[in-house]
Amino acid sequence: MSKDNKSGLPFISRKIYFTIGEVSDLCRVKSDVLRYWEQEFTQLRHVKRRGNKRYYQRNDVILIQEIRRLLYEQKLTIGGARELLKVETKPEAKTQTINYKTQLIKNILAELEDIKTLLV
Q1: What's the total number of domains in the chain?
Q2: N or C: which end of the chain has fewer CB within 10 A?
Q3: How many Å is the maximal CA-CA distance in the chain?
């Protein structure tokens, strides 16, 4: 499996449906965590097909990777990630989201500059 340079997660294939096991591998999240996230994030929906098995569509896998990034890399709480995802889905809030992310990047750069001066 090749890796995405940005996130370190595998690329998502062009399949239409993914089993919960495949999504678990693609997103590096246990299947029971995925089932829990379904309850916490209303945007996340699975389809039940053949033998009452869970299947996710490609856009769900992308959303799960974003949830994983917010929780594990950005260290947001579930509530914080839920609110951020709600804001990002509203068209009028896209500017706020961009401003938030820009400010976050500026803060990170400032911290890196501080670390750089300490190391020199």
Answers
A1: 2
A2: C
A3: 62
- Give tens-digit pLDDT for 39-66: 999 888 888 877 888 889 888 998 999 9
- The secondary structure of 25-84 as a DSSP string is HHHT--HHHHHHHHHH-TT---EEETTTEEEEEHHHHHHHHHHHIIIIIS---HHHHHHH
The CB-based long-range contact list for 31-37 (8 Å cut-off, 24+ gap) reads 34/64, 37/64, 37/67
Provide the residue range defining the domain that includes 27. Answer: 1-76
Same domain, 17 and 44: yes
Weakest-pLDDT range from 18-27, 58-67, 105-114: 105-114
pLDDT band at 70 (very low <50, low <70, confident <90, very high): very high
Task: Kindly give the interhelix angle for 31-40 and 58-68, rounded to the nearest 10 degrees.
Answer: 90
State pTM to two decimals.
0.65
Instruction: Note whether residue 84 is domain-resident.
Output: no
Tell me whether residue 115 is in a domain: yes
**64, two tokens:** 């799960």
